[in-house]
Amino acid sequence: MISFGSFYQQIADSNLQHWLESLPSILGKWQREHKHGNLPKWEKVLNKLHYPTPDKVDFTTSVTIGSGAQLSAGQTEKLSNLLGIFQPWRKGPFSIHGIDIDTEWRSDWKWDRVKNHISPLKNRTVLDVGCGSGYHMWRMYGEGAKFVVGIDPSPLFLCQFEAVKRIAGNHHPVHLLPLGIEELPPLDAFDTVFSMGVLYHRRSPIDHIMQLRDQLRMGGELVLETLVIDGDENAVLVPTERYGKMNNVWFLPSVAALILWLEKCEFTNVRCVDVDVTSLAEQRSTKWMKNESLVDYLDPNNISLTVEGYPAPKRAIIVATKNQPNLDLV
């Protein structure tokens, strides 16, 4: 069974220590009640991942663990087969003992668009909401963050993260908790909170923004990345059924509307730092993710539209600062 004991130990003497009042019971309930059919199989695979301390670890320009020189050809093949059990790999890429996990998303491209527009992460405590398998968490740690916590309710993402962490070494202060943000008490503790690729999945985007705000210390920074459309501050797309074959897309605002929402939630210094149309090279099927991908979600006769006729995915990055709340609005 996956244990969170080392996480509890690391937060005991930190500004997150009051989380210990509620977190063990929340995660204990998850461990008792989460009955995903593949979880026992995945945990057995995790228990087989015993490898030497990697001779190379790089989280600054990539997520690279091991040069590939430490394992024999047979060991490398076995490790590749074990990691393949955790398919589909969606966020990455990873290089593990010479094995290149070519994930569906080139998440490194998104990180390149983000990293130069945010406050330096050195010595900061960071929360990554909807972190997936944890690729961006490792890059945040590579930028000097002293402690990184990711939350994502998917047991597959948890196992993918655990696989990477066990091979890299469990001493790194990077942790993934299988929770949704609605399960977190207001912590008011993180220096930086990321929410990338989550907002459009939330039925209430304003509630999500306020939940993100509740995790930040005063003066902390929010980095919000989401799907957007063109238009003025009143422009919001609400798909009738599906968007890009996804049935859990609720609100796609314009950049101007998104900035207005953040300002209404008492964020200051709100600015859009990047807008980018997702390319077929950034999101695609690979041998590590063999399901449908972006090309299948777009109109084959006009890739500027989804198969439903909506504008093709365009993503914006918004950066903002938590300000003192207006008590009249609380």
Automatic annotation (TrEMBL):
Carboxy-S-adenosyl-L-methionine binds at K91, W105, K110, G130, D152, P153, S154, I181, E182, M196, Y200, R315. Keywords: Transferase, tRNA processing. Gene3D superfamilies: Vaccinia Virus protein VP39. The keyword Methyltransferase does not apply. One of its GO terms (molecular function) is methyltransferase activity. InterPro entries: CmoB, Mo5U34_MeTrfas-like, SAM-dependent_MTases_sf. Coiled coil: none annotated. It catalyses: carboxy-S-adenosyl-L-methionine + 5-hydroxyuridine(34) in tRNA = 5-carboxymethoxyuridine(34) in tRNA + S-adenosyl-L-homocysteine + H(+). Pfam families: Methyltransf_9. Its EC number is 2.5.1.-. One of its GO terms (biological process) is tRNA wobble uridine modification. It is an enzyme of class 2 (transferase). Catalyzes carboxymethyl transfer from carboxy-S-adenosyl-L-methionine (Cx-SAM) to 5-hydroxyuridine (ho5U) to form 5-carboxymethoxyuridine (cmo5U) at position 34 in tRNAs. Belongs to the class I-like SAM-binding methyltransferase superfamily. CmoB family. Homotetramer. This is tRNA U34 carboxymethyltransferase. It comes from Shewanella gaetbuli. The gene is cmoB.
